[in-house]
Amino acid sequence: MRPLHEGEVPSGMTFMVKIFLEIIDRWKTFLYNEEAQKGGITMVDVEKRDNVVVIRVSGRLEINQALELEETINAHINQGEKFLVFDLGDVHYLSSSGIRVFIATMRQLKENNGRMILANLTPNVHKTLKIVELDGLFEIMGTVTDALKVLKS
Fold it and tell me: How far is it, in rounded angstroms, from Cα 108 to Cα 5?
C-alpha cells in the first residue's frame, strides 16, 4: 500500500467521505434555518417619526451585523438626522461590536448637538450593558414611546 498525498482519499473511503460531506452541508443548512427562526439573523427596520429616526434591531448583534447597522446609522446621520431611538426589544445577544456601534453613534450625535436613546431593552441586553458598566453611559428608556416623548420635548 502506497502512502497518501495531502487531500487524497483512499478509493474505498470516497463514498464515505461524500456522505460525510453531505451530512455536514445538511447540518449547516439546518443550523442556519434554526438560527434564523430563533432570531439569530439580525434585521434592521428604520422608521421616521417626525424628527426622530427609530431603528428597530432584532436578532443577534455581532460583528457583521454591527457593521451593517453602523452603515445604516451613518447614512441617516450623513443626511442630517440628529435624533435616534434604538428599539432593542428583539435583540437576543449584544456583542462588544454592537456596543462599539452605540458608543460611536452617541459620540457622533453629541458632536452635532444630537441625541440617541436605547429603548425596550431585553433582559440579556440590559444585563450585558450592566456587566460592562455602560448602562449609565447610555440614555435608556423602557419603551420607544417614552423615548419619543423625551426627544420631542
Answer: 56
In whole angstroms, what separates CA 93 from the centre of its chain? 8
Q: Structural domain of residue 30, as residue ranges? A: 1-37
Question: Per-residue DSSP letters for 28-66?
Answer: HHHHHHHHHHTT-S-EEEEEEETTEEEEEEEEEE-HHHH
CA–CA–CA angle 33, 34, 36 (5° rounding): 65
**Tens digit of each residue's pLDDT (9 = 90 or more) over 67-98:** 889 999 999 999 999 999 999 999 989 999 99
Buried b (16+ CB within 10 A) or exposed e, 126-141: eebbeeeeebeebebb
Are residues 113 and 56 located together in one domain of the fold? Answer: yes
Q: Which residues pair with 138 in a beta bridge?
A: none
Do 59 and 120 lie in one domain? The reply is yes
106 neighbors 73 (Cβ within 8 angstroms): no
Report the pLDDT value the prediction gives residue 115, as an integer from 0 to 100. Answer: 97
- CATH of residue 52's domain is 3.30.750.24
Residues 59 and 110 in one domain: yes
